[in-house]
TrEMBL record:
It comes from Spirosoma validum. Gene3D superfamilies: NAD(P)-binding Rossmann-like Domain (3.40.50.720). Pfam families: adh_short. Residues 6-185 form the Ketoreductase domain. GO terms for molecular function: oxidoreductase activity, acting on the CH-OH group of donors, NAD or NADP as acceptor. Belongs to the short-chain dehydrogenases/reductases (SDR) family. It comes from the Bacteria. InterPro entries: KR_dom (IPR057326), NAD(P)-bd_dom_sf (IPR036291), SDR_fam (IPR002347). This is SDR family oxidoreductase. CDD domains: SDR_c (cd05233). Keywords: Oxidoreductase.
Length: 240
C-alpha cells in the first residue's frame, strides 16, 4: 500500500467517498490536493487532517469541476507545491432520479456538466504534466450503472455510460505514455448521495465510504507495471 510522497488530486472531496479517500491516502503519506465547490467543508477536512497528524499533506483548492479555469488552478497548485501529479481521482458527481418526462433541461445540463464535462475538464488539465513525466494514474469513480440501466435512472445512467466511453478511449490514448486508467464501478454506498442520507437504517449493510477509500488505496498503490483497468465492488446484500 505504498503511496508515500505521491501527489494525488481528488475532485468532489468535500464529503463522502472523496473526503474519506483523501484522508486515507494522506494517512499513508500521500500529498493530496482536494477540490469541490464547498470551500468551508474542504477547509474542515484540512483541519481534521492536521489535527490527526496524518503523514501526508492535504491542500484545499475550491472550484467548480466543470469550470476550465478553476481546474487549471487546481492542477497549477498541485504542481507548484509538489512538482508533479501521480494520481487523479475524478470523483465529483451527483444524480437526479426521475422519469424522462419529469426531468428538466437544467437538471440534465447540470448532471452532465458535473459527471461528464467535469471528468473531461480535470483530466485534460492534468494530462500534460503526466505525459511529460511519462507516468500517471487517472481514476474515474463511475458506478455499476455505467453497465446497466433502471427505470428513473435515464439521466444518471446516461452520464455514467458517457464516463465509461470516455475512459475507454482515454485508456487507448494514454497507455503509450505510461499512464494508467482505472474505472471504479461501485454498487450501493451508505453516503449523503442517497435520498435517505448517510446512516439510515435501510443502508446499514451497504458499502461504507471507508470501504471505497480502502479500494482506492489498493488501486493506486499497485506496482508501476500493474494496472487495474476495471474495479467493481458491491455490498453482499445487493443483487447483481
Amino acid at each position: 500500500m505504498n503511496v508515500e510522497n505521491k501527489t494525488v488530486i481528488i475532485s468532489g472531496a468535500s464529503r463522502g467517498i472523496g473526503r474519506a479517500t483523501a484522508m486515507r491516502l494522506a494517512e499513508h503519506g500521500a500529498n493530496v490536493v482536494v477540490t469541490a465547490r464547498n470551500g468551508d467543508e474542504l477547509n474542515q477536512l484540512v483541519t481534521e487532517a492536521t489535527q490527526s497528524h496524518v503523514r501526508g499533506k492535504i491542500v484545499a483548492v475550491p472550484g467548480d469541476v466543470s469550470n476550465e479555469a478553476d481546474m487549471a488552478n487546481v492542477v497549477k497548485t498541485a504542481l507548484d507545491q509538489f512538482q508533479h501529479i501521480d494520481v487523479l481521482i475524478n470523483n465529483a458527481g451527483y444524480g437526479v432520479f426521475k422519469n424522462v418526462d419529469e426531468i428538466s433541461v437544467d437538471e440534465w445540463d447540470n448532471v452532465m456538466a458535473t459527471n461528464v464535462k467535469g471528468t473531461f475538464v480535470l483530466t485534460k488539465a492534468a494530462l500534460p504534466s503526466m505525459k511529460s513525466h511519462g507516468s500517471g494514474h487517472i481514476v474515474v469513480v463511475a458506478s455499476d450503472v455505467a453497465k446497466r440501466t433502471f427505470a428513473g435512472g435515464s439521466l444518471y445512467t446516461a452520464s455514467k455510460y458517457a464516463q465509461e466511453a470516455f475512459m475507454g478511449a482515454l485508456r487507448k490514448e494514454v497507455r503509450p505514455f505510461g499512464i494508467k486508467v482505472t474505472g471504479v464501478y461501485s454498487g450501493l454506498v451508505d453516503s449523503h448521495f442517497h435520498e435517505k442520507g448517510h446512516g439510515h437504517e435501510t443502508s446499514k449493510n451497504w458499502l461504507k465510504e471507508e470501504d471505497m477509500a480502502e479500494s482506492m488505496l489498493f488501486i493506486v498503490s499497485r506496482p508501476a507495471h500493474v494496472v487495474i483497468d476495471e474495479f467493481m465492488v458491491h455490498p453482499l446484500e445487493q443483487e447483481y
